[in-house]
Structure formats: C-alpha cells, structure tokens
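Q: How would the structure tokens look for this protein?
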Amino acid sequence: MSTIAAISTAPTTGGIGIIRISGEKSFDIIKKIFVPKDKSKKIEGYKMQYGNIVSEEKIIDEVLVSFFVAPKSYTTENMCEINSHGGIIVMNKILNLCLENGAEIAEPGEFTKRAFINGRIDLSQAEAIADIINAKSQKEAEASVNQLEGFLSKEVNKIKAKVLELLAFIEANIDYPEYDVETISNKKAKEKINEIECDLKALEKSFDNGKIIKEGIKTVIIGKPNAGKSSLLNELAREEKAIVTDIAGTTRDCIEEEILIEGIPFKIIDTAGIRDTDNKIEQIGIEKAKALLEKSDLIIAIFDNSKDLTEEDKKILETIKNKKAIILLNKIDIEDKHLEEKEEIKKTNKKVIKVSLLNKQGIDEIYKELVRMFNLDEIKIDDSAIITNTRHKVLIEKARNCAQCAKQDISGNMPLDITAINIKNIAENLGEITGDNVSEDIIKEIFSRFCLGK
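A: Here is the predicted structure in token form.
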C-alpha cells in the first residue's frame, strides 16, 4: 500500500498540531524533511526526537517526531507523528513537504481503515473510534470505549460460535449419514436455535438504551402562544436561549438546545405557539411545530393554568393522546384553575405537573419525571455489550429473522440442507458486524464518515 499523510488535529489555531504519516516510506520521508538536534540517534519505535522540519535548508518549524515501527503501531505499518506548533499555515506547509517527498494525501478515516484491513481491530471497533470522536456525552463516550475494547465483538463472536457449532453438526449429518455422527434431532436443533435467538434478542434489546445514549431524546415543547414554552426552554437550558415577552406569538421558528440529564442528551425544541392565525410567517412556524411532533421521542405540552381550556388547548390534548408526553400546567402563581381535574386532561392518562416558571416552582419534578419515563437512572455502562449503532441493530434483526425461519423449517420438517441455509445466514449477518464478511461498498461508506487524519 502507498504511504499516506494527513493533519490529524483540527485545522485551526491551537497549541500543537499533529501531522501523521503511515506506510513503508514513512521513515524515508521523515529523513528528507526532519533534522534532529542529536543526529547520532537512530530511529526507534515508541521514541520521540526533537529537531526541525526544514525545506531547502530553511527551518519551517521546531518539532517533536514520534516513531512507531511496524507492526506495533496504530495501522500496524511504520508510522511517524510530527508534533508541530498549532496553526493552519505551519501544519499545511509540513503536510505539503510530506506529499512532495513521496506521501499521498490520506482519505477520510484511512489510518483506521488500514488498522482494520491489517487485522489490528475489527469493523465494530473501527466504528467505535468514530463514535468516541463524535461523542456528545460521557455515557456515549464510555459506551464507545467499551465497544473499542471489544465487548460487542466478544458477544457477537460468542453467538457466532454457537451458530457454527450447530451448522457443523447439521452438515456432518448431510455429508456423512453413514457414520455414527451425533444426530441432530429436530427437537435438539430447535432448542439450539432458541438459545441463539434469545442471545440475539438480548443484544437487540440493548439498542433501546443504546439509541438513547447515542442519539439522545428529541423533546418538543408545544402549547398555545404565551403559555410559557420559551420560559421552559430557558429554564431547562439554564440560560436565555429564547425571547420571552408578554406578546403572544413571539416565537415564530423552532429553537433547539441540548441539555444533559443523568448523562443523557435531551434535544429540547421550543416551537411556535399553536393557534389559528392569518400571519403567514407564524403559520409556517406552526406547521413546523406539527411536523416535529411526528418525529419526537417526547412531547411536553404546556398550558396556562390561570385560564380555562380553550378549543385550541383541546386540540393539542387530542394531538398528544397516543404519544409519549408530559402535561405542564403553568402560571399557578397567578391563579389555579385546577385544569388537572378537567375530563379532557384526565382522559389523556399523561403525567400532569403544576409549575410556575416565573417563580421556578415544579422544575425539579419535571427532571424527576424525565428520569422516570426513560429509566435514565438504570442505564449503566458496565462490561456488557450495548448496541448504539443502527447498522449493527439492523444486522442483528436480520440474524434473528433467519433464526425464526430456521425454526419454521424444522417445524415444517424441511430437509436439513434447507435449514442450514438460514443458519448460515445468521453467521453471515453477524460476520458483517465485525467485518469478517462485508462488501467493499459498506467499508467505504463507513470510513467516509471519519475525519481526515484518523
């Protein structure tokens, strides 16, 4: 493979910058552009040398160069990392010198791709590296580190081993019926497939928490104009993100803010007040709000508890009836109309919290309810595998469907070679998670999401 180079730190002003080189010619390229202060030192793995990057005998920067000798490197190839002063100009100059002396510019994620191709990590571990870089919360980072450490790979390979064991017995029966090979009766085969299916279900179920950890909980605040939606957003965000006035209809567009509760990101979206209006701009905002309701994980419907329910309020209550939602009755400091006793609110069967956003009453109860609704205090990052990647979830789902088909084959007294096809498909789907058998197109698509230099 060619020798590649790229800037591995953010392309902006900073304390240091790192230019990374990997491939057979790495050390040859460094010798052409790097002059160590101590010229007697030889290149040794896991050692750094202090010196200058030079071009035509002119010093470009004072640097430290780290050397990694194959196969003990990130990519398993010879590698160098040039630690320069941070800054776009100096980093680009050093990178260009590397390219002029025999390196090629790396594609996004190519260093990690080489680590995968060269067998240092599997595909799920490679994806975990991207997740660590992009983590938005501590829990997401911890889950990604666990995946990088191989917890998911171990679980997948454990299930795959059971599949291959079953497959070996079935194929032995097909190929050598004349020998006294342990017979797989329909009952025994079904028991084994049930065991495999249970393992797959447990892994698939972990995606419920994994999705929350990685993607967060999209929470949409709805209500009539001036009910307190923007005040709620500001209170949850603990800063003035939205304009709050006594004028109804101040919020015309959607305002989004991300907060962490028990280490889980909540994407809080303040929407335009829902009402009948002739104002075209406000109408667009209202339509956006209604569209967001369909894609939300949670709705916080807020009502003015100092006034009676209006027809618009009743329409909002009808909208949230079949959705995950909380009802807030705001402005209890002004007057308490006891809206929680109204039949329209009772029949929604939603949690009702009475608040005064002006006086900050009831805020703690909102947080407690959010924790309870999503069992946030039960989401723990331990030594168990947690699926956070949709690609993995889809493949496990496919494997489980194949297990169900195999059971149906056995129940229908289908020939063993037919059953074996579905069992092989289980192994193939699991192999796609770790990259044992995966198409080049999928590999390209996965690594295209990585940043340059990683």
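The first helix runs from residue 26 to 33.

The longest strand covers residues 58-68.

Upvote if useful.
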